[in-house]
């Protein structure tokens, strides 16, 4: 296996070193996969101005890859449906949330390019250690407007810079009169521009802190730095981030840095409790890149989910029409297909690279008897000893520690003889005849039970939701030979399995193949905890709607107690055709272990999920609160752990270099968690008009006290908005933070964009006090 990450590097022969460097410096032509599995040519080279930008030109359009955002590289590509030719000339690069497939002229060129990329990646990381944020920001702005690349800003380039400043900075006189006009005649060099940039981002809070802690020589001594850490930051130790004495610029850099981030990792969780005592980072329809109607399916999505800490994956398994290789896709839709074997091989190779804790594979079974055998053979062959076989005689589930480097297969199946399908088919036919005359409301009720609706009903749902998609017209809903019937969901409407229960054709008598059955360790079962036949190896699946019903019927405490020793998976409603996500917080509070979200959809629920699983070193498992595993008699018992958190939003540091609109910024803060904490607690600062660089907020409108009782569940959500001229508000940046990982003092809150990607040089600056 060949791969390269921040932690592991592929070695290359030394004699090729110079060739590899030149290939990146001077550039080369390669191909990148585009839509429809077609390749398009691009020219790619290392930026001569910004050492960590890899510039590429495609169809006369120029863009760049930030080397710092490369998360994973491999040439071990498992996507047979995409590539039928020689995969030895392919390279797979994961940049942020994107999966890039690059095709080279030959294998030698690929190896050289990879070596050069690795060299400059490492070099950029080393070089940036010595650079201050304010310097890097200044250089990126300067390079943006130095269009002729002569190392100066001429009159036209200066004017372009001024036009941008007018949209994002309120004091234009400062720029035009005091900075630019007094600093140059015809050309502006970088050193002069760097001083201007410092003035742009100067903030009153920094001036005040400098006065408090810097000496007469404008330097911060080690003793005064410790004083700042121990008093203002309420931290009893210092880390060797910088040499002393520290300059004002370095102090600024420290304040707006990851070292001073509001997030504190804390201690790792105990990993020897039963599996049912943990939240497990889980994805839904893992294979999809977009929506579940016509989106592309990709093996790369499983690797991206792994990079994001996912430990429970969904695989919708279907018969292959052309051969005996089962495929994965969203059935009866236009989503593309990938091979089941490719996914299994990718998970086996990369599954435990980023976390050694167990992986659960949720198999939605739509395969006939023969292809079930193929599924079993593939899993047995690939996973070998890593395939977990459940142990008889256990009264509690094994712990994540005991299950390290193990795959647990979740699917339909029974240990005894399979159902008498011939008898059940009679009931199925009767129910299907009644179903044709059922009103849409009943249809929706059925879909809430089974999130993957019957193909003949998809069109009705789409019309109900006013979905205008030409793809619907291309689907053959009348093809009787391809319509399968989920007998469990239809025969018993009270059953709440998530479409993964055994799928059969109405005219077939199908059993589970022993080869497939022998791989299963978690068996789907109805949500009936009083069933005496239920074992620790039975797992139930509930729609998000069922969770809402549990809260409405006040059965939360009863369910929480059951989930001490039983697993449950929560999945999105079948009405979410656009792959939107539900709020995971009620499911967290319920104690559900597997809360399956669409990782490809970047919305607030996904932001909350990321915050939850940022805990415990990001390993994909988080120990549930004690009140869920040990029980509390009454919600008033939260009173004893009540905390008062005072948050004052002081300012923002924003780097909106590509904005084309005026920025009127403000910040909101709210709490997601138990309803006793969410009620009415929210902050909104005043609006700073025409300021997209360093907005500073009025203390009369930017301070709030949050009273938190359920400290284990509380997650703070920070958002920076832009109020546009039409009074619409768009998100500039956002961040979510569990209370238990919050640090006190003057803290930088790193922002993520609308795609939940970290924004360079963008922070909220706040003061946090906890009582």
From TrEMBL:
Keyword Ribonucleoprotein: no
UniProt GO MF annotations: calcium ion binding; phosphatidylinositol-4,5-bisphosphate phospholipase C activity
Top EC class for this record: hydrolase
InterPro entries xrefs: C2_dom (IPR000008), EF_hand_dom (IPR002048), PI-PLC_fam (IPR001192), PLipase_C_PInositol-sp_X_dom (IPR000909), PLipase_C_Pinositol-sp_Y (IPR001711)
Keywords: Hydrolase, Lipid degradation, Lipid metabolism, Transducer
GO biological process per UniProt: lipid catabolic process; phosphatidylinositol-mediated signaling; release of sequestered calcium ion into cytosol
SMART domains: C2, PLCXc, PLCYc
All residue ranges annotated as the EF-hand domain in the record: 133-168
EC numbers, comma separated: 3.1.4.11
Domain PI-PLC Y-box: 523-628
Ranges where the C2 domain occurs: 624-753
Protein name stated in the entry: phosphoinositide phospholipase C
